[in-house]
Write a structure and sequence with these properties.
- The protein has about 160 residues and is an alpha/beta fold.
- The protein has one domain: Phosphoglycerate mutase-like (Rossmann fold).
- Helices cover about 30% and strands about 20% of the residues.
- Strands 3-2-4-1-5-6 form a 6-stranded mixed β-sheet.
- α1 runs parallel beside α2 and α3 packs across α4.
- The longest helix is centred in the middle third of the chain and has 14 residues.
- The chain starts with a strand and ends in a 9-residue tail after the last strand.
Length: about 160
Amino acid sequence: MILVRHGHAGNKSDWRHDDDLRPLSIRGRSQAAGLVVSLADDPVSAIWTSPALRCRQTLEPLAADRGLPVQDQPLLAKSAAASDLMAWLLTHGSEPWLLCTHGEVFKALAVEVRAAGLITEIPPTSTAKGAAWRVAWHQDGSSDLDYVRPLPIQPPS
């Protein structure tokens, strides 16, 4: 399973509309294009996203490259309960899924996962916009985390 934080979407205080409609910036589109390269060797069977436009846009280049649809998942939205998201993820922990969500969700999910004893410490690296975590859940209840730094490249025109 791979969890992606959406790419750069500008300054939210400058956006005067519904925050779910805030699009990726040029830098964010570059980060989204970079996911195609940085995750090229990862198997992906399904692509799930928060309903927010910036999350969907973050995964669209990779989805197009893989020929997979981007599916909305309300449990990945900023307003969803982290405990519900964690339960859903654990139910499908062995699925080679790619999921995109928000920084706030990453923080809340880390607290839930640590409280459940699935990780003993929060990784030292914060999750940058456009970055990802590869998560491998093991049958003994442990997990491995691998941080994937954002790889900005020039998106196709």
